[in-house]
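Let us work through a complete example step by step.
Step 1: write down the sequence.
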Amino acid sequence: MVYDCGSCMVKYVLCGFNFIIFIAGTIVLGVGIWLLVDMSSFIGLLKVVPADKLETFISPTFIQQVTYVLIGIGAFMFLVSFMGYCGALKESQCMLTLYGIMLIVIILVEITAGILAAIYKSKVKMSTILLLIPLNWVI
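Step 2: predict the structure and record it as tokens.
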């Protein structure tokens, strides 16, 4: 295949951005696994959170939910960026097609989340307010 300066530059810019997202996904996945394995050291790091809101953040169910969300998001970021990086570097049509399909799925999920947030705005606001109220006030 004949390369000009523009296509070569696009190839390496795509590789660069996907490598950065690959590293970020690895970090998010690592933090999620760290939380799953050692929850107590994370609770020790929460000294910066004000004491009245600390009860919400150190409940085991909240930390466990955040852990699984971080692992899921990190693994998905890892997979998508790997497809983009390797597909661009090796010029694999299959990997680049999968990468494009995954990006379309991400865009559709973001649009759906935005529409649902607009429709259920009052419920989202109320649940956010309840999250910030200390647990002893609710009970």
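Step 3: interpret the result. The chain is about 85% helix and 0% strand.
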